[in-house]
Design goal:
About 30% of the residues lie in helices and about 10% in strands. It contains 17 helices and twelve strands. The longest helix is centred in the last third of the chain and has 26 residues. About 15% of the residues have low confidence.
Length: about 625
């Protein structure tokens, strides 16, 4: 792709919208496509509430050959429904004009001003925004978006329009709006619900239908999906083309202004199903044709006949009615109760909703890849993974399970308590793993005292935050009422990269998740936000998967066909704010005396992803990214 203005170093695309709409997840999803695997480089909250993004961040996208693509994304704090919460519209306007420097920290009641050190008084063309993307969720309960948020978005949109900056809408979470689309993403342009929601945003934001792109972000998936990729690439291609057209209209030295001639945009490239050219592998273009009972009625909807959008290939197209979300019982929809399944068919999905390889070859391949892991940072001794979570969740047991796999026999290296109560782990312990006769594996796991209710029991959140920064020395004994501080004997004032944590793992028990204390969840949120400020990737290991579902207790291979497990993982995502594709169910070794292939597959899948996240983090810190595994 050739940029149409030599003054532009790259095309800058700014994402903005309500809290929890999926701005960060869009960046992760697009990055995943070009990397060829699901990535979580941008920390994303799973649900709405308060914004998880606190600073103005710029993200380059590279392909799987480490080539930088000619566009960048800016993520920004979310808009909220009160005037003193969320990002201030004035800050978004400053970002659009290029006045906001990277890593500026947002203050909802005090927008950026000329006096601030983060204010760029002389922005170059590459500092300015070239396409404004409004990210909005399809699955909000009402067809009428929140009035305060919409008012803020309209104000921002008017200012961008005055600067002639092109604007589009990415409408996320389409699968959660329409059951037809959830079952088959290729039916997206056959769905009445999707069309009605797009029309709702068209009317609210004043953006034409052919500039609104429905997408599904990677959330619970851990492998790429061609239908999801096609929707994302279609949206991206149009945003990039609009941005490139815009910079092409600006002559050298020209700054955008309200007095410039308006930019004339071409129609979006082809239909919304036209495939964007991309690095390997090339996706097949979606061919979406619908069989309808009446030839006189068009099979797809469009704003005009010249720019129609194809419908979905679905042999039983529900043209006059769709399943309505009101079929969900009210108490289940609120998440207060789990549905009671009376028959096996009610508890079990037809296919795995997350692809999982259970065979011996896959298990051995994952173990081998972790054994052969090579670090690309010369001064890094090892990757450091920190486990934290409630008392009795299974942190120490997870370490034992990992060690058992690499030792070839069940071990009990980390001492564990047999039940919840008070924390059995009292010290900050580092656990390396022996790699046969070739020393230790290039990652270590740190165990820590469990979180408890109240301020006088369990590990203090500040101690976990100190551990994230590398300030806690090995074997430090925790004091729940007196966290470690500068000057203490066990305080490390000058941590190296190897001392710091490279991935934070929350360990929660699936069988007690519903009853987890609010106070413990609040502490986990504080720790998660601190990790986010340090750009440390985060994952969740959900233990005791066999105790949550009778199907899974009988056959561990039912883990990803169990409706109960899927719902418990979604509940965990909602409570902790971690995306589904960063949540991994496992069964730790407890009463077994021999290794179990299915248990190992779950544990290795979780560990491999966690190690990936940690390695990606340190490579991004050092500006050096390549595959951490030996080729072949």
């Amino acid at each position: 792709m050739t940029l149409r203005n030599p003054q532009a170093q790259h095309l800058r695309i700014l994402l903005h919208g309500p809290v929890g709409a999926g701005k960060s997840s869009i960046i992760n999803s697009i990055n995943s496509i070009f990397q060829g695997r699901v990535m979580v480089g941008v920390l994303a909250a799973a649900t709405g509430g308060h914004s998880f993004t606190k600073t103005y961040n710029t993200y380059e996208i590279t392909d799987n050959q480490n080539r930088v693509l000619p566009f960048i994304f800016n993520d920004i704090m979310g808009l909220e429904n009160k005037d003193d919460e969320g990002v201030h519209p004035g800050d978004i306007i400053s970002a659009i004009e290029g006045h906001m420097r990277a890593d500026y920290r947002f203050h909802p009641d005090c927008p950026l001003s000329r006096r601030d050190s983060s204010y760029n008084s002389s922005p170059a063309l590459s500092d300015q925004v070239h396409c404004l993307v409004s990210v909005v969720p399809a699955d909000r309960a009402s067809n009428n978006p929140d009035e305060v948020v919409i008012r803020k978005m309209q104000m921002i949109r008017r200012h961008a329009s005055d600067l002639n900056i092109p604007q589009v809408v990415f409408m996320t979470r389409v699968d959660l709006l329409c059951p037809l689309v959830k079952d088959n993403l290729q039916c997206i342009y056959s769905s009445k619900k999707i069309k009605q929601k797009m029309e709702s945003y068209k009317n609210a934001l004043g953006i034409p239908m052919n500039c609104i792109f429905p997408v599904k972000n990677y959330h619970e998936e851990n492998t790429l999906n061609s239908d999801m990729d096609s929707l994302l690439l279609d949206a991206l291609q149009n945003a990039v083309n609009f941005a490139n057209d815009y910079v092409g209209t600006l002559t050298a030295g020209t700054q955008p202004s309200a007095t410039q001639p308006p930019v004339t945009h071409a129609e979006p490239s082809g239909t919304h199903t036209q495939q964007m050219e991309r690095p390997t592998p090339r996706l097949e273009r979606l061919t979406l044709q619908v069989e309808t009972p009446e030839a006189s009625e068009p099979s797809t909807w469009s704003e005009n006949s010249g720019a129609g959008r194809s419908g979905g290939a679905h042999t039983e197209f529900l043209r006059n009615s769709e399943i309505d979300s009101s079929y969900i019982p009210e108490n289940v929809a609120r998440g207060n109760l789990m549905p009671v399944f009376t028959h096996i068919a009610d508890r079990e999905l037809d296919i795995e909703w997350r692809r999982m390889n259970w065979d011996t070859g896959s298990r051995n391949r994952m173990e081998r890849e972790l054994r052969e892991l090579r670090l690309l940072i010369p001064d890094l001794k090892h990757l450091r993974i920190l486990l934290h979570g409630p008392v009795g969740a299974g942190k120490s047991s997870f370490i034992n399970s990992v060690n058992s796999i690499f030792q070839g026999q069940v071990s009990a290296r980390a001492l564990v308590a047999t039940g919840a109560g008070v924390s059995f782990t009292k010290k900050y312990k580092t656990y390396p793993f022996i790699n046969g006769n070739s020393g230790c594996l290039p990652f270590v796991v740190n165990d820590i005292m469990g979180l408890e209710k109240g301020n006088s029991d369990g590990v203090h959140p500040n101690d976990i935050i100190s551990a994230l920064k590398g300030h806690v020395k090995n074997n430090h004994k925790f004091n729940p009422v007196s966290p470690l501080s500068l000057g203490d004997r066990d305080y490390n004032p000058n941590p190296t990269l190897s001392d710091r944590v490279h991935c934070l793992v929350s360990v929660v028990s699936m069988d007690t998740l519903t009853f987890m204390e609010d106070d413990v969840i609040s502490k986990m949120h504080v720790i998660r936000e601190a990790a986010s400020d340090m750009d440390i990737p985060q994952a969740v290991v959900m233990t005791k998967v066999d105790k949550a579902c009778p199907l899974v207790k009988q056959d561990l291979r039912k883990t990803y066909v169990s409706k109960r497990i899927q719902q418990m993982m979604q509940e965990c995502s909602d409570k902790l704010g971690v995306p589904m594709n960063c949540i991994f169910p496992v069964k730790n070794y407890h009463n077994e005396t021999d290794l179990d292939q299915e248990m190992d597959c779950l544990t290795l899948t979780a560990l491999k992803q966690i190690v990936h996240f940690a390695h990606e983090h340190v490579c991004l810190l050092k500006g050096n990214y390549d595959s951490p595994y030996h080729e072949g």
